Amino acid sequence: MDKKDFLRDFRTRGCPICDHMGRAIADFLASWQYLLASNEKIQQEYAAELGFCPLHTWQLALVSSPQGISSGHPKLVEHIASELTKLARTTTDLPNKVLSLFQDSQNCRACDLLRKAEESYVQHLAVSLKEIEVRDAYAHSQGTCLRHLGPLVGAVAETDIAQFLLSLAARRFEKLAEEMKSYAAKHYALRRDLHTQDEKDAYLRALIHIVSARNVNTPFKREV
Fold it and tell me: What is the C-alpha separation between 170 and 172, in angstroms, rounded?
């Protein structure tokens, strides 16, 4: 990624890192739904890996047809049936063994893609923030969400840049609070025609910056 990429991404009303991850997972799922419906090798890999986590299974379903799902998932379903048949012949630690067939975010291929996309973007942005032009553009943006602010602050080498990021985030949250209160006050006073665009979407921007964007809000844990 280069400076132009970041200057473009900073125009978002949300979090630029969330947006980057959103594009990455959308491209991945669009490709995967086709491969899963038509490629036997991919179907076998999907079954062996126990599919995706719940979030990405449902996101995959949203971009797939019933026919595609019906073509791509039988091997996974058969694999689970086979494993449960084996478990029916045992008596020890059955709850945990059954749950081991349930895919979580730690071993989900889609979650791994998001982790790598996130880490790469954070590292490149941390380096680019050394440039005054990038910092100025960031200062006029919405900034990153809290989830990505932490890694970003950790990735920058300069203390003054870390302080810049934190101070800017604090001001952004203060402004969001003011915009939401103004929106609510005008709404209840029946002055809705006076709402500004910032006031209208302040609630959504606040939620994104508190918990990150909905389409990439996967509960994966970072290694420490």
Answer: 5
